[in-house]
Amino acid sequence: MDIHKEKIYTIDDIARELGVSKTTVSRAISGKGRISRETRERVRSFIEEHDYRPNVLARGLAQSKTYNLGLVLPGDYSVMDFPFFKECMNGICETASEYNYDIVIAMMDGQELAGGNRLVVNRKVDGIIMTRSMAGGTKAERFLKEKQVPFVLVGPSEDKDVVWVDNQNREGSRELTGILLMKGMKRLALLGGNRAHLVTDSRFLGFRDAHKDQGIPVQEELVFFDVEGYSAVVKAMEKILEAGVDGIVCMDDFITGMLLGYLREKELRVPEDIRVASLYDSPRLEMYRPAITSLHFDTRYLGRVACITLLKLLGEEVEQKDTPLSYQVILRESTKF
Question: Which terminus of the chain has a lower count of CB atoms within 10 Å, N or C?
Fold first, then answer.
């Protein structure tokens, strides 16, 4: 037996040492219930001196809480989507840890919650963060609402009863597109992703807003959605090059990468032959030659805001300044004249 090992105190030990009841100790720890200021200070001083850590399992049982949060990732995300979800997850996990919560990860298969159903039915989590918003909502969202499970959606929602947080995709798209139009690019093509994803709609609305601001009609025949593979890029580019566009706006870095591959294959130079911009930044866009003009979002902070929002729904007292989500337009060589 190690005689130098420090004693691990329980609530029973603290109550016995101070000559008070376990209830009094619990009230002093939680800050709830009526006890004198002197007693509360005695308990807290003892706790600080002996580095007491409440047993999370016991605390959870007492409050009917698990101190787990579910994080639901889309099962169909691609390798190219991974940086976004990784950064968002980092922000969520770091914030949850600050408030003594753990993260349990589940996947969403299409519109179904898949393994996440067990998290709800078996009461393994106190709330859930969903990381993809879909047009018309999902069966998973409806299931969570039916079971009255607190949840937060990362991305916009068409349902007024759903709590959601999102980057300023529409606002950022509007500003970046507006800059390109003011630089003299009057015929812009747009390559977009899956139309069922509401982020796609947000970015398109911003693209349209910028044209409306400057009285320039959107060339509808140059707007392409569901560009999710190289063959779709090839098909769209055949029409784009025939139309003699001034520039191409891609909705994300994945589409941008496919486009640049096509342009290299056709020996078309950026920006000399055609200008390119992306509505979502990633480190690789800066490393391309030329580097690509893009919109930068703090995805880690987005994850933090999502977690903070869920913790507030769960009744936690959160010390967080309400710093709004923002973006940065990064002008690089790909759009220079």
Answer: N
pLDDT at position 79, please? 55
- In this structure, the number of other CB atoms found within 10 A of the CB of residue 62 comes to 12
> Mind giving me the DSSP string for 123-140?
T--SEEEE---BTT--HH
Over the stretch 182-231, which tens digit does the pLDDT of each residue have? 999 999 999 999 999 999 999 999 999 999 999 999 999 999 999 989 99
Task: Tell how far CA 103 is from the center of its chain.
Answer: 15
Longest CA–CA span in the chain (Å) reads: 86
How far is the C-alpha of 267 from the C-alpha of 248, rounded, in Å?
16
pTM of the model: 0.78
- From the list 90, 81, 93, 91, the residue with the least C-alpha distance to 301 is 91
Name the nearest CA neighbour of 134 among 70, 194, 89.
194
**Contact between 158 and 315 (Cβ < 8 Å):** no
Q: Among residues 104, 108, 117, which one has the least CA distance to residue 76? A: 108
Which of 134-143, 285-294, 322-331 shows the lowest mean pLDDT across its residues?
134-143
